[in-house]
Description:
Blueprint: H1 3-32, H2 36-106
Amino acid sequence: MNRNELILATAILLFAAFLLGWFASWLVHRLSRATRAEMGELETMAQQLHEAEEARERAVSALEMREADLIARLSTAEAELRAAQGELQESQTEIEELREYIDRKLGRKT
Length: 110
């Protein structure tokens, strides 16, 4: 084998290796890329996720509004309770005063 034949054999081997590498790369790319059906499925899932996030945001907003309403109603009820307790205490004091007055008028000793 002379020098020219060696260069030609090496060139053919390198070209064959290049073609084999290119074919392997093309095959891996072809097998690993997503199909149109998979892309459609991913798009559908992304849309569903977006809708779920929007629904969650609406639910959180409604919950916060409901919580604020309940807190306001609770505050009002507590204020009414304090007022009623104050009135009850005043009524009890008045009842005691009236009992003492009646006992004094009737001449009872307490």
